[in-house]
Protein: Choline dehydrogenase
Amino acid sequence: MSESTQAFDYIIVGAGTAGCLLANRLSADPANRVLLIEAGGRDNYHWIHIPVGYLYCIDNPRTDWCFRTEPDPGLNGRTLIYPRGKTLGGCSSINGMLYIRGQSRDYDHWAEVTGENAWRWDNCLPDFTRHESHYRLDEGGDADNAHREYHGQGGEWRVEKQRLKWQVLDDFATAAVEAGIPRTRDFNRGDNEGVDYFEVNQRSGWRWNTAKAFLRTAEKRANLTLWHSTQVLGLILERGSETAPGGEVRCQGVRVEREGKEVVAQADREVILSAGAIGSPQLLQLSGIGPADLLAEHDIPLVADLPGVGENLQDHLQIRSIYKVKGGKTLNTMANSWVGKAKIGLEYVLKRSGPMSMAPSQLCAFTRSSDAYAHPNLEYHVQPLSLEAFGQPLHDYPAITASVCNLNPTSRGTVRIKSRDPRQAPAISPNYLSTPEDRQVAADSLRVTRRIAEQPAFAKYSPEEVKPGMAYQSNDDLARLAGDIGTTIFHPVGTARMGRDDDAMAVVDPHLRVRGVAGLRIVDASVMPTITSGNTNSPTLMIAEKAANWILTGE
Structure:
């Protein structure tokens, strides 16, 4: 392959959730020459934009990296698909579209472990609202003063209510209230306890990904260059050059394969990794930044010994309980006939509503697994359908699925390269349920699900627990079954976490600059020290909003 060089001020690796926002913000000043690089193609696959299309985007090489985890002892030796978006918009093009920020305590904890007050909830809230377009505010709807305090209007990131209702879910919500979970109108005010339907990142029944929100307009700017379908091969790191005096290591740019040729892109100011919790640590390790023993194992020259690169992997493991019901309409009964499918398709074509507008989960609840917790440590994703596993057909009987996840797992996993080849997927080892605390929460969470299901509002459906089954009652049985039926809810974070200067496992400083390497910053979910108490897409956008300001002001 021949090699050529092109120069920019800023290079962003990854046109996903964070990368699209960064490209928009950094290129807003016409004096900044910005390059945005994406390994995947354009987001022109029709199933990206139809909400139910996530079924056809996940584990599809056109839109997904199609990662697999290593066999996991906590899952009784099972491996899982591990979806990560590979297209413009990244994971926001294939995810569940659910708008959840987490809890204020998440961000206050980040401030404590990093020593940076900018990460406190009160200081993060403006970064959430800056890009938000909340339907209650933008459409003059039923917004109360609290909505005006906690939400934004006129921004790029659209938040809407779902365009459907299911009686069986309404009754499950009432049962949750009967079980002691309060109703809420808003999960995003800092305390997300309660039950209600999720709000979603959609616009008029279409998925609203970050490529539409932040990139479409910015892409027209002369100072923003987009290279999609371009594989980054490695970072260019130099020591003791004119731009890195005194033996300092500096990131000068990236090497990429583009249209069959090797191209060098030079960054005069910064390279920003936004390749995600899997891609960013992989690229660091391939470039000589990471644990010294791992790099030595693959004969990669050590540039910066950062033992935290690829460590601290955290994810939300969902445990799916399935209840067969009687006398209630579910998607199983609607979609298991050609007539039903035709009606579903016609409703979407005419109204952009109904099952084709569905996010993967519709009803949400945040609650506690036991009285030992002072804050909600469980999140429910409840669906009016059931199936054996993702990608398999719906069951032929009416049923719902109540998935529950431990919001604050204590288990920690790893992401480690397997070779020097940037095209080979790394070894992803989440180590689910590897601590006694997580196994206890798993067992208790299944009991909470049962308590909700037995309440009068839902008992009228004569629910039968098909999975895991009422025969299993003990802590050991339920924890083992959680390993049998648990699966990722697609929230990997933490593999290049931020921290104080004296934190040996911190990969980046509180302003997300890579320790020991000038001109290199990481802006994606990998920098989270601990996982947020909810879905992780919108927190990643908040991180990018904050980082963009720091980059532009030289902080």
Summary: The radius of gyration is 23 Å. The CA atoms of residues 119 and 261 lie 41 Å apart.
